[in-house]
Write a structure and sequence with these properties.
The chain is of the alpha+beta class. It contains ten helices and 18 strands. Strands 2-3-4-1-5-8-7-6 form an eight-stranded mixed β-sheet, with helices on one face. Strands 10-11-12-9-13-16-15-14 form an eight-stranded mixed β-sheet. Strands 17-18 form a two-stranded antiparallel ribbon. Helix 1 packs antiparallel against helix 6 and helix 8 packs antiparallel against helix 9. The protein is globular.
């Protein structure tokens, strides 16, 4: 398993709220082992875990986040190599589950190396709610490619033009990928994104909204259509529809987007804006502002230049929301 993904967990402000969210969205059941660390499972299959963010990180208002774990044979040698290759080692410890080290690559993306005997949460054919794999989101892959090749012996295969991916990640098999993404999509941080399988993306998006989360942009590649989502406390994760993965072979030899990428709502919105401008129908702007702000009241996240979360940026969030309502 050396160099392969084995686990993911969530550092969250409010574990009961997070458990309720992921139970509703992905169907997870939770059990506490060890104390304060809640393992999640789909049926009999462990798939992830969550825990309460340490008090110090809460005080500095660190956002809730998902973490990807990579198996290694020797944690001490891995830490030494990471420092040699320009990474920052933020944590080393040994616990009941094994030895772990939290490492940030030269561009700042964090991951955890794990030495131990616990089984992997990754399965060859993930079902609803299970972890599929992780992908690295970066602005400039050239800054970290040599680091990951040197750390784990990973090989990267370019997907070529016409896809959202820069490279597929191989380690004896296809285990992950790299996405070149702008700050408008990924924010100003580099990170490892976690992907979970769902039977229906449309239904999952409805459950996410009903549970207080939000979905953002969509990207498409050989595995199908993926949607960036935020849970009710702002932690980012991805969902991938199982059907789109099973039908992906039809898209592998073409650069044409699937029909689901036809943004008819956006096109109608642009037409409406044009009518408002040229016909001076100012009331249309009011309808548009209401259309933008009402969902934000339910999800707890609004947008003005950048995402604003009700629980993390309450003053800015309500200022923007009230502004839209007044307008």
């Amino acid at each position: 398993m050396n160099g392969k993904f084995v686990w993911v967990d969530l550092s969250t402000f409010d574990p009961p709220k997070a458990k309720a969210f992921y139970h509703e969205v992905l169907g997870w059941e939770f059990f506490d082992e060890p104390a304060g660390y809640w393992n999640a499972a789909v049926g009999d299959n462990p798939c992830a875990a969550l825990y309460e963010m340490p008090e110090f990180f809460q005080k500095i208002r660190m956002p809730s986040f998902w973490m990807t774990y990579i198996a290694v044979d020797d944690i001490e040698a891995t830490v030494a190599k990471a420092r040699e290759l320009g990474a920052k080692v933020e944590l080393e410890e040994e616990n009941a589950r094994g030895k772990v080290a939290l490492i940030r690559d030269p561009a700042g993306a964090g991951f955890t190396c794990y030495q131990g005997s616990l089984p992997s949460a990754r399965t060859p054919n993930p079902k609803q709610g299970q972890w599929m794999w992780s992908e690295l989101f970066v602005s400039d892959f050239s800054k970290v490619r040599a680091f990951y090749e040197g750390m784990f012996g990973w090989q990267f295969e370019s997907e070529g033009p016409g896809t959202d991916r820069q490279s597929i990640l191989h380690h004896g098999e296809k285990i992950g990928a790299v996405q070149i993404a702008s700050n408008e999509i990924k924010g100003d941080k580099e990170f490892w994104g976690v992907f979970f399988a769902v039977d229906s993306a449309a239904e999952a998006k409805q459950r996410i909204a009903a549970a207080g989360g939000k979905t953002s942009y969509e990207h498409t590649n050989a595995e199908g259509a993926h949607h960036l989502a935020y849970d009710s406390q702002g932690a980012a994760f991805f969902i991938t529809e199982q059907n789109s993965r099973s039908n992906s072979a039809a898209h592998e030899s073409t650069t044409t987007r699937p029909a689901t990428s036809f943004k008819w709502r956006t096109m109608i919105g642009l037409v409406v804006v044009a009518l408002a401008v040229f016909l001076e129908m100012d009331w249309i702007w009011g309808v548009l502002f209401l259309y933008w702000v009402i969902p934000d009241l339910f999800t707890g996240t609004t947008y003005f230049i950048e995402p604003l979360h009700r629980n993390k940026n309450p003053i800015l969030y309500w200022t923007v929301v009230v502004t839209w309502l007044v307008l």
